[in-house]
Amino acid sequence: MAWTYSALEKAEYSTMEGAKKTMSRLEPNGSSRYDLFDPIIQCPSGGLQRIGSSGEGGKFLCMETIAETPNCVVYSIGSNGQFDFEASILSSTNCSVHTFDCTYNGSSINNERHSYHKICVGRSTETRSSATGSLQFMSLADITQMLGHSKVDLLKMDIEGFEYEVMSGLDLKSSCAFPMQISMEVHYHSLYLFTSFHNKPQYWDNMVWTMHQLSLAELAVFFQHIANLGYAIVSRDDNPLGRGCCSEFTFLRVEWPARCNS
């Protein structure tokens, strides 16, 4: 395993004699930083199926779990005008699909079962300033309430670092509506690189971990949070194009409060 550290993770301190010393934390390099987070469960029926593009952006999902669900609902967060994932879901299931992206003027690709919402998903419902103008954010709980969904069968995210904000905004009080399956690209460096917030510190007040390279310990806290919400990893697919920055993970919900069964 290769090990490295980033200059951003170096710290300087003074000895009792007044000398300046630096210390650095060694971290697994590239995709090996995700090696503690391999899948621990399998799909309950059938196997994993790749949905979407054959290259970057495709997702490995437990499709039988979704396809067998009547009136299934799929949320796709992050689009930038690319709808390969939505088109695959629409062609392979009877689900209704909702795309959310406040940074792009999109439209429906299927009038009967697909809706496009110019909304970004965050920890709270608010309007934020960005280099490209005002952006509307909503919490996942407020979105499900607005759309009248008591549950979401699949949540897909490709949002360049905003996944930390979305997941930290999940509130156990609304846990009965948590997605049954979550597929997202997780980044440990180059967060927000392809967004209008990159290198714009004047817009960072409401953002999580801007210009920061996540340590293995910080990733472990994030994955522990997801486990505490009731999810287990069913798929990991490292991004071959991102210099180890990111990996695609799919989680299945394996635990939920008893009150959700009533």
UniProtKB/TrEMBL annotation:
Q: Which domain of life is it from?
A: Eukaryota
- Domain called Methyltransferase: residue spans: 37-251
InterPro entries, per the entry: Methyltranfer_dom, METTL24, SAM-dependent_MTases_sf
Q: Which Pfam families match?
A: Methyltransf_22
Q: What is this protein called?
A: Methyltransferase domain-containing protein
